[in-house]
């Protein structure tokens, strides 16, 4: 069973090639990505063990939603090798504690490629301005380490509703929420560009997941594209497409 299978497209695609024959659907282990230049490119799928170490994405360091737990980055790498994965996502705490060379050595030991890393900055109103600035400073410290370790792709999901962390703060209607999120993304974009990093923004479109608050928010691919354009972040920000949520 697949959990959270993702495709990247838009500005995350580089070196576009001519569109291949798509008759009959996608070939196994390949993906086709629509690039910003309205051309197509084809890339091999990277079979990645989806390990999440972000405490607000998942309660524990765990592997997707399968019920398996990996207490360390090395354990995740060992599991990925054992079960035939080509890559694993990064445990950023391991990177911060041991440095990029240790991460690369671990991947080499288990014959793996870099997958993705978590993006620590909350762009929507689930973070206060003070929390956003603190997370941005954290990311500025992590960004060169991520680049040096080879983990240059990051992932972030946009909550499809307004959810202020402070009980006294009112839920934001769509347009002021959009402006706040675009402003925050515009502050992140230079850090991404400076270190050659890319982040994919995931829209959560399932009706039952988004109509749970007074004000909804971005929940379509078109909405994510508009946000990226409003933040002038096309060079470093694209779309994470999650078949579990769209």
From TrEMBL:
Residue span(s) of domain Xylose isomerase-like TIM barrel: 78-246
Pfam families: AP_endonuc_2
Domain of life: Eukaryota
SUPFAM superfamilies documented for this protein: Xylose isomerase-like
Signal peptide (UniProt feature, chain positions): none
Protein name per the record: Xylose isomerase-like TIM barrel domain-containing protein
Organism of provenance: Haptolina brevifila
